[in-house]
Amino acid sequence: MARNKPLAKKLRLAKAGKEKGPVPTWVIVKTRGKVRTTPKRRHWRRNKIKP
């Protein structure tokens, strides 16, 4: 990808990078294990971010 990218795209990529991580441990503990996976989990090769 180009080094010089539009700010809007850069912000979207940064947001997606933060969202793709696992659910925090305290959330799993607080919900007694009901919440374990994130619905926004994304693999970089399989699911692309909308432009």
SSE blueprint:
Layout: H1 7-19, H2 25-30
CATH superfamily: Ribosomal protein L39
Tell me the domain tally: 1
Order of helices and strands: HH
CATH fold-level name: Atp Synthase Epsilon Chain, Chain: I
- Average pLDDT works out at 90
Which percent band covers the strand fraction? under 5%
User: How many E strands?
Assistant: 0
Shape: elongated
> How many alpha or pi helices?
2
| CATH architecture level-2 label | Orthogonal Bundle
The first-level CATH class name:
Mainly Alpha
Helix content: 25-40%
| Helix vs. strand class | mainly alpha
Low-confidence stretches: none
If you compute it from the alpha carbons, what radius of gyration comes out, rounded to the nearest whole angstrom? Answer: 14 Å
Distance between the termini: 13 Å
* Largest sheet entry: none
Structure description:
37% of the residues lie in helices and 0% in strands. It has two helices and no strands. The chain has helices at residues 7-19, 25-30. The chain has one domain (1-50): Atp Synthase Epsilon Chain, Chain: I, CATH 1.10.1620. The chain is an all-alpha fold. The mean pLDDT is 90. The protein is elongated.
